[in-house]
Amino acid sequence: MNRPNLWSEQNEILFEDNHLLILNKPAGMLVQGDATGDEPLSAKAAEYLRFKYKKPGAAFIGVAHRLDRPVSGVVAMAKTSKALSRLNEMFRDNTVHKTYWALVGKRPEQEKGHLVHWLVKDPIRNVTKAYSSAHPQGLKAELDYELLGQAGNRYLIQVNPITGRPHQIRVQLATGLGTPIVGDVKYGFLAPLPDVSIALHARRLELQHPVTKEPMTFEAPVPDMAHWEAARELFS
C-alpha cells in the first residue's frame, strides 16, 4: 500500500491515542465536506488512519467541532464512536475551554473585556449579524478577550469564547470592538490576505479525555506565514 499524499505528521498531528486524533488544521481547508466537493480534513484523517493501521475498508473518524475554512488551529476528532459521543456532549455543554489568537488592524479601546451579542445567521449569504440586545431570531454569544501586545503594525488579541456560534469571534470582534480580523473582508477588513485566509488561529484546546477522564491541553503553533511572523516574535 502506497502512502497517501497527507500532511506532515510532525506539524499537523498534535496528539493521537486509541480514541482521539488532535490536528492542527491549515487555513483554507474544510473540516467536513460541503457543496464545493473539496477534500476536507476529516477525509484526510480517515485516509491517514486507514494507511497507518492497514485497514482494508474505511476508517472511522468523527468530527466533534469545526473551524471556519479560512481559520487555522486545533481540531479534535474521534477515532471511536464512544469518544465522539462524549466529545459531542462536552462541546454542547461548553465544558471545553477554547483559546484563539486573532490579529486585528487597530488597537481595541479597552485592553480586555467581555462581549455579549445576539447573532443571526443568513445561511444564503453565509454571513452572521451581531445585535447588542436580545433579538427574536438571535442566539446569545459571549466571549472574553485580552490584548496580548502589538505585533508589527497589527495587534494580537487572545479570545476565549464562552459559547460556540457560527462566525462568533469574527463578527463579535468586528461589531463589538470595531476591530475586524486581518484578512476578513466578509466582516469589514479592507483587503484579503494573499492566501485568502484570515488571521484567526485556534491556539489551544483544553478538555477532559472522553474515556480516561484525564485533563488534557493541546496547543497548535501559529501558521508559518508572513502575517503571523511578528506575533511569533512576541513570545520568542
Automatic annotation (TrEMBL):
Show the Pfam families listed in the entry. PseudoU_synth_2
Q: What's this protein's name?
A: RNA pseudouridine synthase
Q: Which UniProt keywords apply?
A: Isomerase
Domain named Pseudouridine synthase RsuA/RluA-like is located at 19-174
**Can you name the source organism?**
Hymenobacter cavernae
Similarity field: Belongs to the pseudouridine synthase RluA family.
Tell me yes or no: is Isomerase among this UniProt entry's keywords. Answer: yes
Query: Which residue windows are coiled coil?
Result: none
Say yes or no: keyword DNA damage present.
no
Q: Which domain of life is it from?
A: Bacteria
Q: Which InterPro entries match?
A: PsdUridine_synth_cat_dom_sf, PsdUridine_synth_RsuA/RluA, RluA_PseudoU_synthase
